[in-house]
Amino acid sequence: MSVSRTKPVFTQGDEFEAIVRSYERAGGDGKNLLSPKFASMVVSGNQVLSTHELPGLEMVAEQLSDGVAARVTVAPGTKVELPVHLCFGVLPERGTQRIVSHFEIGAGASVEFLAHCTFPNSVEVIHLMEAEVRVGEGARMRYSETHFHGEQSGARVVPRGRILVEKGGAYLSEFSLTEGRIGELDFDYTVDVAERGRAELMVRAYGFGSDRLRTVETIRLNGAGARGLAKSRVAVREDAVSDVIATTEGNAPDSRGHVDCVEIVRDRAIASAAPLVRVTCDSAYVTHEAAIGTVNKKELETLMARGLDEEAAVDVIVGAMLKS
Amino acid sequence: MADDSLLIVEGVHLIREGTEILHGVNLTVAEAEVHCLLGRNGSGKSTMAYMLMGSGGYLPSGGTVLFGGRDITDATMTERARLGMTLAWQEPARFEGLPVLDYLRLGMAEPSEERVREALEAVALDPAVYRSRNVDASLSGGERKRIELAAVYAMRPRLAILDEPDSGVDVLSLSDIRDLFARMREQGSALLLITHRDEMVEIADRASLICSGEIVMTGEPAHVQAHYCDRCEICDVAREVEEAADYERV
Ligand SMILES: Nc1ncnc2c1ncn2[C@@H]1O[C@H](COP(=O)(O)OP(=O)(O)OP(=O)(O)O)[C@@H](O)[C@H]1O
Ligand SMILES: [Mg+2]
User: Among A299, A323, A324, whose Cβ lies nearest the Cβ of B93?
Assistant: First the structure.
């Protein structure tokens, strides 16, 4: 018989409700934050509003002056069946939120995190994310993070990740910022992958207005037979600027890596992509592909020949690309 | 001119990059008619298709195009499509991340699962397998062409312009294609069937022969077919234009 522990740390029910509403605006399902079936943590500013743990999954959070430090531990061999829901939000127009997190996924464990970060009223919100992750031998961690920064001026978001994947482990991450404004995104993740481990990094972003995006993905395949994929899908329009730097290093025998960047640019926007592949071992094999261009005329016209106007056709093409 | 003409092309001239490609073309397609436009490589068939559909850069320099009694010579592609005209490209576009299901639903006035299934079955693709595939480079050339035909079928257009629908679609036999077109016609679609394969003429009600940017004859399919087989030689102007620079990502 499994027991679960809920620690409702908050007293301000209104704030919890407000954060759940904005969590839903970011694409989350509010029910899941309250359901005992799902492990979850809700953070507003520097307040931990709730945590809900499950057997084998521990989440310890402590308040910092400007955010929260969280330690997430999954015991060896624990298979967390349902996704763990994380909600980080800042409701006021201004403020800094720093999330210092440490993930420890024990050998053979498997877990999926669904994080939603929401700054719905942001005029000048700064969100700093400093994550350290260790995926143990044969363990598997999937981490999906979706942001919503409001429709006004967006936020400044600085995610930093240092990830270690041990022998036979897998780390799969997806970062998505495709609804509302971005503001400024400065993303930088580095993954070191040991023998037969696997890492996949994916960034999806849609910038417009004066949005600025810089994403740096680095995968180092350090163990024999390690696999890595650094992927990005970015669209920019109006005066937005995006800079994608994706590196994969093949440093061990039979390691295989691939870098895959696609960007669509419109209006006065500027996009650049720097796929970098580096091989230090002669049986490693690392490839890359990068495509930047405007919306393809034939794709556009094909949809217009089905009755869509130009704007709707562009939305379909960009939307599909961002999901691919 | 017959009263039931859905499409009337009169004296259309078209210039591409300083070269006149269509030289005063005349063509009519009746409601629910299967009209075959037959011609050798490079004779101007695809140019006709793009011009009819209103593709960018294919505006006539002279002449008129009427559709359902309306002058659409200057209409946009979207306007033409909303009037019920559509085009299946000779080399259909690929879309990253766009599922077949969404692609087929896009053009449907009333999207329904049922119609999607029916459209895929009409081109001999298993809906269970294909509805969730993407319309991207992972499809073979033949699969992509069949999905294009399915999308046109699903849309139930008044006029479908099909540019070489049979090329690269070897799984569909001539009789499958005939069945598909018969079903489209029953549902009220007229077809302008563009091809260089004369055996396609057999499934048409009428045929026209295009040569060097001119319609040189229109009439009974068998008659036009005989003329084409006896008289037409493969021109040295034959050249693929599908890869032309204007279709590349800039
Ligand atoms: N942009 C262009 N500039 C100059 N010539 C062009 C251009 N586009 C097409 N042409 C020429 O116009 C002629 C007709 O081309 P079109 O593609 O319409 O032929 P087609 O009948 O469809 O041929 P195919 O059977 O090979 O598909 C060809 O000679 C082609 O080279
Ligand atoms: Mg052609």
Answer: A299
Task: Kindly state whether A61 is in contact with chain B, defined as any CB-CB distance less than 8 angstroms.
Answer: no
Pocket test for ligand 1, best of B13, B16, B21 (most atoms within 8 A of CB): B21
Q: Is residue A231 domain-shared with residue A320, that is, in the same domain?
A: no
Residues A324 and A262 in one domain: no
Given a contact cutoff of 8 angstroms between Cβ atoms, the answer to whether A135 and A170 are in contact is yes
Tell me the residue range of the domain where A168 lies.
Answer: 5-296
| Rounded-to-integer distance, Cα B191 and Cα B188, Å | 10
Number of folded domains in chain A? Answer: 2
Cα three-residue angle A267-A273-A274, rounded to 5 degrees: 160
Q: Does A70 contact B at CB distance below 8 Å?
A: no
Nearest CA in chain B to A315: B98
Let me know if B5 is exposed, middle or buried by CB neighbors in 10 A (0-12, 13-18, 19+): middle
Model pTM score: 0.84
- Ligand 1 geometric centre to CA of B16 (Å): 9
pLDDT tens readout for residues B171-184: 677 778 888 999 99
Closest of A268, A139, A297, A168 to residue B77, by C-alpha: A297
* ipTM for this prediction: 0.91
